[in-house]
Design goal:
Helix content: 40-55%
Bound molecules: adenosine-5'-triphosphate, magnesium ion
Low-confidence stretches: 1-6, 475-480, 609-618
Shape: rod-shaped
Structural class: alpha/beta
Number of helices: 16
Strand content: 15-25%
CATH class of one domain: Alpha Beta
CATH topology of one domain: Heat Shock Protein 90
Amino acid sequence: MYFQTEDNYLNILLVEDSPTQAEQLRYILEKRNFRVTLAGNGKQALEILREFRPNVVITDVVMPEMDGYELCRTIRSREKLKDIPVILVTTLSDPTDVIRGLEVGANNFITKPYDERYLVSRLQYLITNMELRKDLTAEMGINVYFSGKNYFITAERLQILDLLLSTYENAYHQNCELLNAQKKLQELNEHLEDIVRARTAELLSANAQLKIELQERLRAEEEKTKLQAQLHQAQRMESVGRLAGGVAHDYNNMLSVILGYAQMALDKVEPDSTLSEDLREILSAAERSTRITRQLLTFARKQTIVPQVLDLNETVQGMINMLKRLIGEDITLNWRPGPQLQPVKIDPSQMDQLLANLCVNARDAIVGVGMIDIETSMATIRPEDCADNAELVVGDYVVISVGDTGCGMEKDVQEKIFEPFFTTKAVGHGTGLGLSTVYGIVHQHNGFINVVSAPGRGTTFKIFLPTQHSEITTKEGTGNGVTQRGQGQTVLIVEDDEAILKLTGQMLRNLGYSVLSANSPGKALSIARENLQSIDLLLTDVIMPEMNGRDLAELLAAIHPEIKCLFMSGYSSNIIDGQGMLGKGLHLIAKPFTAKKLAAKVHELLDSKAAPPAATNN
Ligand SMILES: Nc1ncnc2c1ncn2[C@@H]1O[C@H](COP(=O)(O)OP(=O)(O)OP(=O)(O)O)[C@@H](O)[C@H]1O
Ligand SMILES: [Mg+2]
């Protein structure tokens, strides 16, 4: 809206000591087409009013020299000026402002800071009212006592009404502003609540995350401790194994000599003589000792093995009768073959040993009557299963489980059961080698063992053997039990242990072979060169200084392609294979061996036309 008089503009005298406030107000007013004249205080305003008559005076209250009240009073007191409307610019924070305004005869108020629309409507209202009341004049005075002071108000009724209305309007306006502010505050509050809610949710989730991380860390710590303990145990078993393996190897050679000579001596004496009986005692003690060294070698994984691809269900089935005899009549043996078992690759004789050892232990753990359950099944080890057990390897396994209703074991016993010579049995009842042997066998075949046991609640051993995806090996024919004799064929024996060399030579000569002996590979090569056409078989040790048996065999085969080769060893090594497994087409006789076994083996190689069967270590 634009305000105009006859000469088109409404004139306003603006009295304001602050230049910025003055400029701000002038800008608002001129935008609405008012014409604005500025004065810096009351005195200046009165100067201007001498020559210039504005339509309205808008004056600040607090000013130097002459304030707004004084200016208003002076305007009212001068005949020429008294009908010019005066608007006081005030904060209206004090009710006295209104009373004083009335006293000095102000027409209206406006408040700082300026609200443009409000200011303009106030001007419009004031000017319109002034127009309407041009002719109404009712001078009167009234005394007002307010806030401890007397005021004499001469303003006319309508002026008072204006002031009251403007006060009301002002209050209304402020109330609106207050409501607005309140609304904004409420919105802000709600927003704040949203923010608080969001932040609380964030904190809760961070807290939960922290909890998870903490648990994760604790789990990792536990896992680490567990893995360290497993590693420690594995290292201990490894060093015990090395010790046991080394001792057993030396004993094996000595036992071979004792067995061999005792056997030969026995062949020379009358069967009924006391000497024959003594020799048989020596033989049987030596054989028992051989069993112990075998078990130690098995534990140390130094036993030479000939694994075959087997169906475990078939293998176990074949053993059930023998196992039943082993455990006696008071104990029930339940055999539950699992379905769809995949083949495994294991030395069958070791499988026999493993099951027999587990069943005997189960039998010994049962007092009176009880039950032994043998089961087979398939299992898959996934990566997550390996997390807390360093021993596990991902893959498919055949599991053979032997459970009993026996006495069970305390934790401290369980920790030691695989150690050689650990036994809880009375002297003479257990050597403590049963489970060491099982341990060696399983590990040599890349498997692992799981034991679940508690005192009074029985024990279950689970043996995991990796599955094998090749054809099941058909059974080999076994010898007929008759000692096979030679027909003068020549055997070159190479062995760095002089006692064994001598003994083996003696055995072969007794069997009807012609023998050449060499205590080193070098010597063997020179003998071979001299006797090129007449050597039928090389019988050689595997581990020797200078050169290993396999390399020697290759060199000899280059000189004499027809030569057959039989390795003798009580001890597997890298030369055979890291796992003690014999390569295809290689033949081996395990030390210590009897003359009869040697005879069968040599005969098998020299007299069979077809490819001879693989060696076994029995
Ligand atoms: N099924 C089982 N129930 C309870 N304890 C067992 C079981 N199997 C083994 N043990 C404990 O483990 C120990 C070691 O067993 P291991 O087979 O190695 O030796 P052994 O049976 O004492 O002697 P050996 O087998 O050489 O005759 C046993 O003495 C026994 O305390
Ligand atoms: Mg045992």
